[in-house]
Amino acid sequence: MLQLQYPSLLQAGYFINNEWKTDTSATFPVYNPATGEEIIQVADAADTHATAAVEAAHAAFAQWSRLPAKERSNILRKWYQLIINHTNDLALLLTSEQGKPLAEAAGEVQYGASFIEWFAEECRRVYGDIIPAPVADRRFLAMKQPIGVVTAITPWNFPVAMITRKIAPALAAGCTVVLKPAEDTPLCALALAQLAQEAGMPAGVLNVIPTMQAEAVGKVLTTHPLVQKVSFTGSTEVGRILMKQASSTVKKLSLELGGNAPVIVFDDADIDAAVKGTIASKYRNAGQTCVCANRVLVQRSIYPAFMEAYKKAVAALKVGNGTEEGVTIGPLINTDAIEKVERLLQDALSRGAELVLGGQRTQANSLYYAPTIISRCTTAMELSREEIFGPVSAVYIFDMEADAIALANNTEYGLAAYFFTPDIHKIWRVAEQLEYGIIGVNEGLISFAEAPFGGIKQSGYGKEGSKYGIEDYLAIKYVCLGGMQ
Question: Which Pfam families does the record match to this protein (predicted)?
Answer without folding.
Answer: Aldedh
